[in-house]
Each structure stands twice: as C-alpha cells, then as structure tokens.
Amino acid sequence: MANFDYNMMFFFEDSLIKKEYSVLLTFLVIAVLLTIVIIGASYFLVRQNPDPEKLSAYECGFEPYEDTRHTFDVRFCVIAILFIIFDIEIMFLIPWCVSLAKLDLLGFWSMIDFLFELGIGFFYVWYVRALDWD
Amino acid sequence: MTNLMVNNLYNVVSLQSFTVFPEYFITLSIIYILIVITLITYNSNGLMLQKAVSECMALTLFMACYLILNDDLTSASYFMDILSFSNAVIYDSLASFTRFWLCFFSGLYFLFVADSLKEQKLTSFEYLIIILFSVLGLLIMCSSNDLLLTYLAIELSSLALYVLASFKKTSSYSVESGIKYFITGAVSSAFFLLGSSFIYGFTGSINFFDFYRMYNASIYDYVMVQWFPGIGYLPSFFFESWLFSFSFRASYARLIEVYDLTFDDLLFGYTIDYFNFVEIGLTLILFSLFIKLAAAPFHLWSLDVYEGSPTSSTIFFAVITKLSILVVLIRLCHMAFFEIKEWWDFYFLSIGVFSIFVGSFGGLKQRKLKTLLAYSSTSHMGYILIAMGSDTFTGVQMALVYMIIYMISSLCVWSILLFLRLKRKNITTKYNKELGDLALLRKSNIPLSLALSLTMFSIAGIPPLVGFLAKLGVFLPLIINSYYLPALASIVFSVVSTFYYIRLIKVLYFENILVGKLYYPINSEKTIILSVLIFALIFLFCNPTLLYLACYKISLALFVDPVTYSSLPIDYPFNK
C-alpha cells in the first residue's frame, strides 16, 4: 500500500497512462496520416487513362489460353492444419524434455498421456487416408 | 495405486481424480469409440454405423449419469465442496446436479437422433464423436472454479459445435450457418478473454473462490504455514492478530478501485471519476456469456444458425449448451462477485427483459418452425436471466428449475420436429419445416399432435402443466425483491408470446384444409421416451417438490467454505 502513489493516476500531465500510451497515440496518428498521404497521392496526382488492353491478364504478350482460377485443393488446408497441431505438440514437448529431471513421475506420465492422445489423433488421420498425396 | 504418504515420488494417481471421474470416463469412451469405429468403417466393407454408434453413446452417457449419482456426497455437500487440481476444479452440489442433467439429456438426445441421421444424410460417425467432445467440454464447464478452465471448456465445446453446424457440406445454408456461428463464437470468446485479463490484472487471481474471499475474507480462512511438521495449517488468527484479515480485505478491495481526479476550474474544484476495472472485466465476461446464450440483443446469430444447421445439430445447440453457461453465470455472479451485485443485476434485468421482449415480438411473424423456436429460446433465456437478476437465492433456485423444465420441453418440441419425416420419393434438397406442414397431423398421428400441443401449452405457461410453475417461479423472486417494473413488463410480454405457441396448436387442430403432408410413422423406442417426457411435464406440475428441493439445496450450498484438496495435511509436499 505504501508503494501505490495516487498522484501517478490523478494528474494527466504526469500521469502513468499518458507515459505508457502516448507512444501508441503517435503511432496511430502517423499510420493514419501515412495511409492518407499514399492513397491520396496515388489517386489525385496520377493521370488515369484506363484501357481494356491494360487491364486484361498478362501471359507473355499472348492472349491467355485459359482461366487461371481453379478449385482450391483442400489437401493443402488439411496438411496446414495438421502441421499446426503437431507443431504445438512439439512446442509442449521441448520444455518438458529440458526440465524432465526436476519433474517427478507425475510430470512424466502427464506428458506421456498427452502424447498418447495426440497419437490417437495421428492414428485416425493416417487411417482415414488424409495424409495420402495423390 | 493411490499412495497417501508424504513421499511423493509415487504420487502418480492422486485421490483427487474422483472429482472428475465422469470426464475421464467420457474421454476414454471417445478414444475407444474413435479407434474401434475407424477400424471398422474405413475398411472396404462400407458399413454405415451411425445408428449403432449413436445408441452406444447414449448408453455411455447414461453410465456417466450413474457414475455421477454414485459419487454424490449428498449428505456431505451441505458443508463441504472439494477443490482439486490446484483449485481449478470444484465439486459441489451445483456441479454434481448439472453434470447429471447434462449427461442425462445428452443421452436422451443421442437416442432421439439415432434414426434420423441417415435421413439427413449425416452418415459419418465423426459427427457423433464431435458431439461427445462438446458434451465433454460442457461437463468441464459445469465444474470449473477458474476463469482459465472455463475458457478452455467453452472453447472445446464451441469448436465442436462450429463443426456440427456446418457438417452438411452439400447445403450452402449449413456452411453459411457454420461460418456465422464460428465468427460470433470467436468474438464472444475474445470478449471473455479481455474481461478475464482485466480481472486478473487488477486482482492477481483467476480463481472464483479467491474473488469471493477478496470481498469476504473471514477470520476462519485457513492460511498455509509450516508450524510443525505434520501440522501444516492454522487459522489465521493464531499467528497474526485478527485485524489482519480485515486489513487484507480492505487492501484488496482498494487495489481494484481506480480513482481519477481531475481539476476543473469551471466548477471550482475536483471531479472524481470512478473506474472499477473488475466490474468492467466482469461486464465483458457477462456479455460474452450472453452472446453464447443467444440473449437479445446478441441473439441474431441464433436465428440463422438454428435455421441453417441440420436439425440434429440444432437440437444440441438449443437444448443442451445453455445449462453449462447458466452454471458459469451462477458461479461468477452468485459465488465469486456476489458482493458487487448492484453492478451486475442491472445487466441481467435489462438484458433479460429485452430478451423476453425480442423473443415475444420477434416470433409473431415467423412461419419457419426452427426460427420460431429460436425466438422462443431467446425469450426463455430472458426469463432465466431475470430470475438471476433478482438479488435473491430464490432467483438462483428458480433459474435452475426453469432451465431443467426448459430442457425437458425443448427436447420434446425439437424431437417432434425431428421425428416427422416426409414420405416423399426422393429428398434431395434441404427441407425445413414450416408452420403449414403440421396441418393435418391430428388425422395422421393423433398421439403426436397431442404431445405437441401439450408441450406448446407448457412452454406458453398454461396451468395444468409445469411451464406455468416455472414462469411463476421466475416472477416470484422479482416481486419479493420489489422489482415491480421488470416483472410487469415480463408478464405482459409473456402473454404476447403465447400467441405463436397457441397458433401452432390452432394449425394442428383447427385448420380447415383437406390435403396435408404425409409422414412416416415413428418407431416405438422413441415414442416411449417422448411419452415419458410428456408425462414428466404433467407430473412435475402435480409434484415438483424433488426438483425444487434439489435446486434449493444448490442455491444454499453456493457459499460453503471449500475444502481444497491440497489443504488436507496428509500429502502436503514439505520438501519441495
């Protein structure tokens, strides 16, 4: 209680909030101003002559053969999600490995249980052929 | 296996696990069912096992109910709750009661849904595994004493539900409702975390009992002190003066209040603004939970999500998720932050009355049955919130009673909606029931129309059914505490909402058309369960004593001093 100084919160000139947050206010103002300057300069100072030839797709000077959009293959998304999950598992494994000497048997078996549960998930993903890349 | 000696090298499985036996059981059953059914299904046989798996899960949940009943320290929980897992998990009568009802209604849900999964073309068994994960999350939520564990449980449950809402990949309504549910749920979880971080920042703790003790420390609180080996704990008045406990409370309460003093020379003096960040944090957490409950003005997601999701998912959202969120609200407001009830009862009352208003007037023009029931569930949540918002323990009791009765009657209505399968040649498009589809049910299925009308009367609050007692019980604590205006407004709006409930009965019985829709007959297992539920609606009007008594005991037992598991001097680790 003795360390808590009411003056730090009361007067805005010396206030703690001003010290901590005035930098953020500066950042915000600069970000907004810079955005306005860039977009405004690009919109007002550029001579604009739109032409259908300029706006069409580019394929080495020729007319495009076919539409470049195709259906997104969901295998990529599945692999990305699985990567995140097993990466986080590794992230939990690393401090456990380092501090294993100081943990008792409960700490050991807790991590083994965690690995077991993620192993079940891995088994399921493998068996369901979600890892096949064909 | 369980070794109570101080030598904790062998302390692998500690006795505190018994508080979470239902969660362990359901986790093991999820793992087991997942492995076994994966090995069966993903062979070349191509068996569709969803009906069998659903009934197996119902059996699992009923066994979990038996487990909860077996562990119920009914006589002891008048004076003792047990905190375990370093004060994160609490085992008291509220946790026991709500976990039982959660497992019971989830088991009934699986029995109802077993047949209709094939008709909705949800033939993967993973659908049921995800529901069981959500039930696990809801179970953990019911017995959590910690802001962090509550958040984890909310996320576990909600992530499973987002997938459930969008499970039908061929229907764009379903996918769209999944995305809406996900975004709304993620934003509400963000509010929850922001509120928790405010509360943690200004109090230094995330434990609900610590919040209670922050306002209400007593000289009988035990303090950890190594006095002699073997006797670890002393009441605080043995080694400090008893004024210590008062200054403890005073200093904590002072730390969370921030005064902002500004000099304003127009008014010749200082003005004081009063910020209490714990109250702001609590408000954010409350808003997060209101969003998840679909209370107005945060109810807009539920209309589209309930309409677009497959009906078996919608039943789970509408019936079963609400109980755990009510438990979290009770623990936060009536246990942890009860001292500042003048702050939060305003929010409960205003959002409750507004929910009843929106739920009553919004359902008037609805012809789609699922959206109608979504508005109706918004108004029910409003009734529960106003019961909680009256500052009495009767309010907590009546909120729990109302929630149980809401779950029974909602399960009846939604399951009748689910049972009615159109007898058509090929059902290729998504087909949600409208008001006119029930038209000639009185000719084709007389008992079912009787069941539906009885349920509608109960939900509307007509006397010889238990809905009347539920609504009466909700208005009673308000009037006891002289909150006359919210009570009057709620009663008037509840009369408005009876219109669309009675309109359903009118369509069933008094519609003068000659051609109606043809439905398949319903098999006998489901009719037996439905009849038991309808009987419960009538029986509980005549004899609601057991339900009232259980909820009364819970509302009284909320303030019991807990027994922290590690506070028993048996296995305190002295040589750490």
TrEMBL record, chain A:
Taxonomic lineage of the native organism: Eukaryota, Sar, Stramenopiles, Ochrophyta, Bacillariophyta
Reported function: Core subunit of the mitochondrial membrane respiratory chain NADH dehydrogenase (Complex I) which catalyzes electron transfer from NADH through the respiratory chain, using ubiquinone as an electron acceptor. Essential for the catalytic activity of complex I.
A molecular-function term among this protein's GO annotations: oxidoreductase activity, acting on NAD(P)H
UniProt family annotation: Belongs to the complex I subunit 3 family.
InterPro entries cross-referenced by the UniProt entry: NAD(P)H_OxRDtase_bac/plastid, NADH_UbQ/plastoQ_OxRdtase_su3, NDAH_ubi_oxred_su3_sf
Pfam family, one: Oxidored_q4
Keyword Electron transport in record: yes
Protein name, entry field: NADH-ubiquinone oxidoreductase chain 3
Domain of life: Eukaryota
Organism: Fistulifera solaris
EC numbers for this chain: 7.1.1.2
Reactions listed under catalytic activity: a ubiquinone + NADH + 5 H(+)(in) = a ubiquinol + NAD(+) + 4 H(+)(out)
Membrane-traversing stretches: 21-46, 72-94, 106-127
Membrane topology type: Multi-pass membrane protein
UniProt subcellular location: Membrane; Mitochondrion membrane
Enzyme type, top EC level: translocase
Gene3D superfamilies, alphabetized: NADH:ubiquinone/plastoquinone oxidoreductase, chain 3 (1.20.58.1610)
GO cellular component terms attached to this protein's record: mitochondrial membrane; NADH dehydrogenase complex
Keywords associated with the record: Electron transport, Membrane, Mitochondrion, NAD, Respiratory chain, Translocase, Transmembrane, Transmembrane helix, Transport, Ubiquinone
TrEMBL record, chain B:
A molecular function GO annotation: NADH dehydrogenase (ubiquinone) activity
CC annotations in GO: membrane
Native species: Fistulifera solaris
Transmembrane segments: 20-40, 52-69, 89-112, 124-141, 147-167, 179-202, 222-244, 274-295, 315-334, 346-364, 399-420, 448-470, 482-502, 527-550
Protein name, entry field: NADH dehydrogenase subunit 2
Domain NADH:quinone oxidoreductase/Mrp antiporter transmembrane intervals: 144-215, 278-495
GO biological process: ATP synthesis coupled electron transport
Swiss-Prot/TrEMBL keywords: Membrane, Mitochondrion, Transmembrane, Transmembrane helix
InterPro entries in the record: NADH-Q_OxRdtase_suN/2, ND/Mrp_TM
Keyword Transmembrane: yes
Coiled-coil segments on the chain, per record: none
Gene: nad2
Top-level taxon of origin: Eukaryota
Predominant place of localization: membrane
Membrane-protein topology: Multi-pass membrane protein
Protein localization: Membrane
Record Pfam families: Proton_antipo_M
